[in-house]
Design brief:
Layout lengths: L1 E5 L10 H16 L4 E6 L13 E5 L7 H16 L6 E4 L12 E4 L4 H4 L6 H17 L2 E4 L2 H10 L7 E3 L13 H12 L4 E5 L8 H14 L5 E5 L7 H8 L7 E3 L5 H9 L3 E4 L8 H8 L4 E4 L4 H5 L4 E3 L4 H13 L1 H15 L4 H15 L5
Parallel strand pairs: 1-2, 1-4, 2-3, 4-5, 5-6, 6-7, 8-9, 8-11, 9-10, 11-12, 12-13
Length: 377
Amino acid sequence: MVIAVNAIFLQKDALEGYGHYAREILRRMVLAHPEHEFIFVFDRPYSKDFLFSSNVKAIQVGPPARHVAAYLYWYNVSAPLALKKYKPACWIQPYGFCSLTTGIPQLLVVHDLAFRHFPSQVSRQHRWHYQQFTPRFLRKATRVVTVSEFSKTDIEQHYPVTLNKINVIPGAAREGFRPVGWEQKEAVKQRVTAGCEYFLCVGGIHPRKNMMNVLKAFSLFKKWHKSNMKLVFAGRLAWQYEDFLSKLKTYKYRDDVVLTGYLPEEELEELTASAYAAVYVSDLEGFGLPIVEAMQCGVPVIAANNSSMPELGGHAALYADAQNPQQIAEFMQLLYRDEKYRQVYVDRGMERASLFNWDRSAAAFWKEILATVPVSS
């Protein structure tokens, strides 16, 4: 069987949530099924790091699909034309969009419907694209995968066409996220925060990550405790970040805030494992990989009490109202003041993280592929 894969976001040193999910699932499936051929379709030069086995063939098809007009052309014209000669039995679409013109059965992955809940946080052009085409994508797809029960319910409520063809396949923490020893922690702290403990907030800098309220919470924490605790933001400047950077220039505790930018995977693993606590209070998350990654590292987590996050963290995280900086700050304070209390959430988190497993998710994904493929294939 030939299986096509949309690989446009498998870009070296640029992976984020969607890309990590796709890479971890695809790598395991490719290795587990050497009897099948996988055609990875890229839209620009690619790294051979993503060609996980000899049964993967890469093709590059332009134009680079990074704005709406290019999306429409790539998904509906150039990529389907390029795939015709391979006659794939199905086409995996991991990034929420699919082709409306192809006759190839498609397995579509939709992580969340953030554009419906926070439309002002999406550019006008991209908002139009999501609003106009998401219903059509979901009708066109043979099967749909999402990453949490929250997202499944949300998608079904807004798009009832998915009721009988959507399943949940969660992500997991990558293998490199694990506890590290005291010496390694100290080395990371010396490099990043001049030796100080720090709260860590992982994610691209954009409004939905709610980083302004994290700053407000940190201000309260610093007022209550004259400590040298730092706040580290790890992630690229994504979109609508100008207001955040502008406010940060006049922020009272600016010298205690570190922006690392996008980090290579090994550096992010070390940074996460060396944190005092992780703060992940987004306005909405379809899954929230950094929560599980912090837990697997033995780092306690303060998460938001919205969307998928309580489902993900169970009783192993502290949950705050994302719009209540004081509540976020109070949890920071609780972890800071009581080491035994903090250790409870370290232990709970490591136990909780073990419930998520990439091998199980990849096996479940393979079943969805088989359900996508016509019986005669």
